[in-house]
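Subject: Sanity check before I submit

Could someone independently write out the structure tokens for this chain? I want to compare against mine line by line before I put it in a report. The sequence has 226 residues.
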Amino acid sequence: MKYEILYPEAFPVVKFQLQRGEKIKAESDAMIAMSATVDVEGKMEGGILSGLARKFLSGESMFFQELAANRGAGEVIIGHQLPGGILDIELDGSYGLRVQKDGYLASTEGVQVETKTQNLAQGLLSGEGFFILNVRGKGIVFISSYGVIHPINLEAGEEYIVDNGHLVAWTDYTEYKMEKASSGWISSITSGEGLVCRFRGPGIVLIQTRNPDSFAAWIRSMVPAS
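---
Independent answer below. Compare away.
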């Protein structure tokens, strides 16, 4: 199939050109518009337990959208809820992606999306809970963000520190751990950073240039208390 990411500088969308019989999978409510030859249907990939895990453990929707060109070639336009970037990544089956909440937008056939368990320390400290998404297989996955997506390419043994609120996704073979931003808790809190992720290469880490939690806190500060 053919696709194009439109308006990448501001509020991007992905436009797919599907041949008859082709289909894509997308996050619930991602479809913006489509040809009359395309059908949209809610799917619970992996069965009821996987759907419940995505909903109650990782905070994602229980259902995916399946958009299929069943009655002839057609066009589909999808987008995401936040003002931010969309990045397409081709998976060849040799590695997968760990994706934080709200980072998965869509994927082509051959890509599976599962719930992945973090260890106790990562779950308690990450702010994302004990579960994240594991995306693997062969195909193209579309990752979305708040702000622009910036890739960080790590060489073997290279370390890089990322503010947890700016983390979007990373390769599944890349080591990481949660830690304080500064040497002490008071300094970490007063610096405004709190907790960070320390990654160790090789691998790729995708970050977003804006922090949705910080923006939400700013909005709350502008609303007069009742």
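---
OP: Matches mine. For the report I'm noting this point. Confidence is low (pLDDT under 50) at residues 51-60, 119-130, 185-193.
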